[in-house]
Specification:
Layout (H helix, E strand, L loop, with lengths): L8 E4 L4 H4 L2 H4 L9 E7 L1 E2 L8 E2 L1 H13 L3 E2 L2 H10 L7 E7 L4 H13 L3 E5 L1 H5 L8 H8 L3 E5 L16 H23 L5 E3 L7 H9 L3 E3 L6 E2 L10 E2 L7 H8 L2 E2 L2 E5 L5 H4 L4 E6 L10 E4 L3 E2 L1 E6 L4 E5 L8 E9 L6 E9 L13
Parallel strand pairs: 2-6, 2-12, 3-4, 5-6, 6-7, 7-8, 9-10, 13-21
Antiparallel strand pairs: 2-11, 14-15, 15-19, 16-17, 16-20, 18-19, 20-21
Helix pairs in contact: 3-5, 3-10
């Protein structure tokens, strides 16, 4: 899991009452809302002994109630991807629900709640855990039951390994062969048990580098990380964001703010590769934006575990800014999160950039895009 900051990423949520109100109470959007969707990521449900990956059932119920009351449409993840990549119109307030690792509590707690509402969801399955009958995992029977009632099961590798790391003495060719086989094995197991599996992929631990992301893309997958934020037409299909949900950051006000977020119109991000932080820590991130309605005068960025980061404007006219943390990031994983208000009350633009800072895979330290 990502190490997550406990700072308020969009101020004190003082203006977020508007995000909690139903659409009829907020007024109509005026064309300043870019096409987008928000993808939520959960792991375990009602498992108090694992708070870092667990969502309390009271929290989860509040999330679902907010989506229903707020006029959100819950779509299958594959449908979201097809609309964003194929050019079909995407309405405002579309959400997709995902879960990683195939924990048994998905069937016990999440599935009955989502089935009762008729809402689809996607589970990214690390298939070795199912095949080896890990006690905390689903079995294939329960997976098939949920698949018959609107759930989708997608690839999270077979092994759930740290894919961006190289084994001792492993060269690039051997690493590519090992990772490719791991991903293919996960896809083959899903297809063998369910008859089909979408070309969707989630990186274990949310970890990737440029070489891994390009490999996954060449295999034909649309891939997802664990960095937060909404997705839009400018988002990179090699590593689309999702909002992680767990006990520490699953309260109602924070959830309402996140599902109402909008994607920055990204034109360029440098360095894109999260392993850049292995060579220079704290890293400097340069972001260039296409024209859009975000209030860049109020842009704020945060570094995980530190609070506000320094933002400079090398080219304000060109909508290019740079972000740098005050102190080195601590690992194994970190993020820079940036937000800016939109013209619509209570709705913020959001971009999160992941960094790998605690493990330097052999043959990769200092090699960035």
């Amino acid at each position: 899991m990502w190490a997550r900051p406990r700072v308020s990423l969009i101020g004190l949520f003082a203006t977020l009452l508007m995000a909690i109100l139903p659409p009829s109470a907020r007024g109509a959007d005026d064309g300043t809302i870019p096409e987008h969707a928000v993808v939520l990521m959960y792991h375990q449900f009602g498992q108090a002994d694992t708070p870092s990956t667990n969502i309390r059932l009271k929290q989860f119920d509040a999330h679902l109630d907010h989506l229903a009351a707020g006029g959100y449409q819950v779509w299958p993840l594959q449908r979201v991807v097809e609309h964003l990549t194929g050019g079909a119109p995407l309405p405002d307030r579309v959400v997709a629900i995902t879960m990683d690792d195939a924990y048994a509590s998905i069937h016990t707690h999440a599935y009955p709640r989502l089935k009762a509402r008729g809402w689809p969801f996607t589970v990214f399955v690390a298939t070795d855990g199912v095949d080896q009958e890990f006690p905390a995992y689903l079995d294939w029977g329960r997976i098939r039951e949920m698949a018959a009632h609107g759930a989708t099961f997608a690839n999270h590798t077979a092994s759930h390994d740290h894919l961006a790391e190289r084994l001792p003495g492993e060269d690039s060719a051997a690493w590519r062969a090992r990772v490719t086989a791991d991903i293919r094995r996960g896809q083959e197991r899903l297809t063998a048990e369910l008859g089909t599996a979408p070309m969707l992929f989630a990186y274990p631990y949310g970890e990737f580098d440029t070489e891994l992301a390009n490999l996954v893309a060449r295999m034909g997958y649309t891939a997802f990380g664990q960095q937060s934020g909404p997705i839009g037409r400018h988002s990179d299909r090699r590593a689309l964001p999702r909002f992680p949900m767990a006990e520490a950051f699953g309260d109602a006000a924070e959830f309402a703010a996140k599902v109402a977020t909008l994607p920055f119109p990204l034109a360029a991000v440098s360095p894109w590769d999260p392993t850049a932080a292995l060579a220079t820590n704290p890293p400097t991130l340069a972001v260039t934006l296409h024209p859009g309605p975000a209030r860049l005068d109020a842009l704020t960025c945060y570094a995980s575990g530190q609070g506000a980061a320094t933002v400079t404007w090398p080219d304000r006219e060109g909508r290019r800014f740079a972000v740098r943390a005050a102190l080195p990031l601590t690992g194994p994983r970190g993020r820079y999160n940036c937000t800016a208000p939109s013209p619509v009350a209570g709705r913020y633009f959001w971009y999160s950039h992941p960094w790998l800072v605690g493990r330097a895979p052999a043959n990769r330290a200092g090699k960035v895009e």
